[in-house]
């Protein structure tokens, strides 16, 4: 039996996007901003993980082990990091630590590397695809098309925070096999 809820996480110790799908459709979403930006990442990671645990726990109709919930989290790419700059390795370390904490929240959390759910797709393309699939999501502000420096073409101004869009993309990709 498929779980009723899919909870997808785009891990970050500062702006952690989350999205809940209920029976395969977007249901709720949001962003977790733990403590203050200056706090140590271990403290922030702990607070983010606690918030995600609460989201999962509030949804569950059952006691442990959350039989009606599938938690899905992105994890950092485990290969092909040759292009990373040294200053980015600190960010990868923090993300890995947080992703490990999230992974441990349920007994069968699914971990997806970026490559597995979005390949090389730019954020703008993912947003455009999700907006076609889920037209009710507030992905854009209005319909007036303006030039986008990110994807070098015209589309309406982004609305929903990109960390939340990533979480929605992760849930969609998990349920549908890709974005
Ligand atoms: Zn764009």
The level-1 CATH class = Alpha Beta
Major beta sheet, strand line-up:
3-2-1-4-5
The CATH homologous superfamily name equals Ribonuclease H-like superfamily/Ribonuclease H
Number of strands: 7
Structural Rg: 16 Å
Output the CATH topology: Nucleotidyltransferase, domain 5
From the spread of the alpha carbons, the general shape counts as globular
Distinct small-molecule ligands in the complex = zinc ion
Biggest beta sheet summary: 5 strands, mixed
Distance between the termini: 23 Å
The arrangement of helices and strands along the chain is EEEHEHEHHEEH
Strand content: 25-35%
Mean pLDDT: 90
**Low-pLDDT stretches:** none
Number of helices: 5
- Structure classification: alpha/beta
How many separate domains? 1
Query: Can you name the CATH architecture?
Result: 2-Layer Sandwich
Helix content: 25-40%
Write the layout of secondary structure elements.
Elements: E1 5-10, E2 16-22, E3 25-32, H1 41-59, E4 69-74, H2 86-103, E5 110-112, H3 114-118, H4 123-133, E6 140-148, E7 153-158, H5 162-176
Parallel strand pairs: 1-4, 4-5
Antiparallel strand pairs: 1-2, 2-3, 6-7
Bound molecules: zinc ion (ZN).
Zinc ion binds at residues 124, 148, 150-151, 155.
Give a verbal description of the structure:
- With 179 residues, this protein is α/β, with parallel strands linked by helices.
- It has one domain: Nucleotidyltransferase, domain 5, CATH 3.30.420.10.
- Helix content is 38%, strand content 25%.
- It contains 5 helices and 7 strands; from the N terminus they run E-E-E-H-E-H-E-H-H-E-E-H.
- The strands form 2 sheets. A 5-stranded mixed β-sheet has the order 3-2-1-4-5. The chain has a two-stranded antiparallel sheet with strand order 6-7.
- Helix 4 crosses helix 5.
- The chain is globular and about 45 Å long.
- The chain binds zinc ion.
- The site of zinc ion has 5 residues, from loops.
